Amino acid sequence: MCLAIPMQVVEIDGYNARCEAKGISRDVSLFLLQGEPIIPGDHVIVHVGYAIQKISAEEARSAWELYDAIL
Prior knowledge:
Blueprint: E1 5-13, E2 16-21, E3 24-29, E4 43-47, E5 50-55, H1 57-70
Antiparallel strand pairs: 1-2, 1-4, 2-3, 4-5
């Protein structure tokens, strides 16, 4: 099973972004979302270092509530 993590975009440099979630910061590639307008503050689903989908803040919050319940 694969797991993708919701993260918030903090800053963008070309096709690379610095994203944060739960106090953890990661460099993430935005290459797969070239057609999607992404700005700092947006939320994305991250899998193996790539943003694969833009989501709403509500969807990100809901996913983290589910992950926290599992833990």
